């Protein structure tokens, strides 16, 4: 026992530099990841009445959750938003990556232009699009009326089109990011395979279908998983564009959590603290995202075994 302890101590001394280099990262993880998780798990069972004052409420927050219509409305909106964002963004991102991977003049300029939306602040981007889709003097309505597609302005932030509008803007902002992922995957495919395929008569769509897509399967699975998690976490652009309205038509889970954890107060300046219930909704959302991610990973693993 003493020999084992002495051996462990000797190894620790030998690797002292390594442990010192890992220490800042570990402290950062402990402060900004582990502590918030512990705080959330503890807060779920309390009801805050004022700053610093809280009462133990047991499972009351969970009972409230199961009867909260706003939560289930936000859950439904989140699934609708995530589904359409993924269905539109991923194929378009792959098409852009395939295009800019070709031997074209100025392809670096194309890559830069398509990637630019990724580095723009979400709030700034949303404000610009708010002006573009403005129902009164926005350029989108003016253009559609000029070409005769519509006779009167469309309220893009009304009940009918609000979700469509936020999805379009989210797709525009995400295209460049996933394009880079797909582009990195395309550039790992050896050119020898394409040359051999051309000798066998596989060109154009045949080469894309039988060579490119199968060899892109690992990177595609990773991109889908990242895009899936990000789609469930989106709320910044919705908060700026619609604030979750109108009539909670664009209220999503993370925006609902934000409202609960950072209450704005009523017209009289009274702030109702909902930290306990907000922590409960955050925990439920994390569980839902985790389940969806695990189901996807299980499905993708089965697809690998099948094909």
Features:
3% strand; two-stranded antiparallel sheet; 307 residues; mainly alpha; 14 helices
Explain the overall architecture.
The chain has 307 residues and is an all-alpha fold. It has 14 helices and two strands. Strands 1-2 form a two-stranded antiparallel sheet. Helix 5 (107-119) crosses helix 8. The longest helix has 32 residues, at 69-100. The protein is flat. It starts with a helix and ends with a helix. The model has no long low-confidence stretch (mean pLDDT 85).
Q: Output mean pLDDT.
A: 85
Reading the helices and strands in chain order gives: HHEEHHHHHHHHHHHH
Q: Helical proportion?
A: over 70%
What's the alpha carbon Rg, rounded to whole Å? 25 Å
Strand order across the largest sheet: 1-2
Assembly state: single chain
Structural class: mainly alpha
């Amino acid at each position: 026992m003493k020999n084992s302890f002495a051996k462990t101590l000797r190894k620790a001394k030998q690797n002292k530099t390594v442990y010192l280099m890992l220490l800042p990262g570990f402290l950062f993880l402990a402060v900004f990841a582990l502590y918030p998780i512990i705080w959330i798990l503890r807060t779920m069972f309390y009801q805050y009445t004022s700053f610093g004052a809280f009462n133990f409420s047991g499972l009351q927050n969970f009972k409230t959750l199961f009867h909260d219509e706003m939560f289930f409305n936000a859950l439904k909106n989140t699934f609708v938003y995530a589904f359409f964002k993924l269905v539109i963004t991923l194929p378009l991102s792959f098409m852009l990556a395939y295009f800019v991977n070709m031997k074209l003049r100025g392809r670096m300029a194309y890559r830069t232009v398509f990637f630019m939306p990724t580095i723009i602040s979400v709030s700034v981007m949303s404000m610009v699009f708010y002006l573009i889709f403005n129902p009164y003097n926005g350029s989108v309505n003016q253009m559609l009326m000029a070409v005769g597609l519509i006779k009167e302005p469309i309220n893009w932030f009304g009940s009918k089109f609000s979700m469509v509008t936020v999805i379009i803007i989210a797709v525009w902002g995400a295209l460049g990011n996933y394009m880079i992922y797909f582009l990195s995957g395309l550039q790992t495919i050896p050119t020898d395979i394409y040359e051999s395929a051309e000798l066998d008569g596989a060109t154009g769509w045949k080469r894309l279908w039988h060579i490119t897509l199968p060899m892109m399967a690992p990177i595609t699975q990773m991109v889908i998983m990242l895009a899936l998690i990000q789609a469930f976490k989106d709320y910044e652009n919705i908060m700026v564009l619609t604030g979750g309205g109108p009539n909670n038509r664009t209220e999503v889970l993370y925006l609902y959590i934000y409202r609960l954890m950072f209450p704005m107060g009523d017209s009289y300046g009274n702030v109702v603290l909902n930290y306990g219930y907000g922590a409960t909704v955050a925990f439920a959302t994390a569980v839902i995202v985790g389940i969806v991610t695990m189901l996807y990973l299980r499905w993708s693993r089965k697809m690998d075994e099948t094909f």
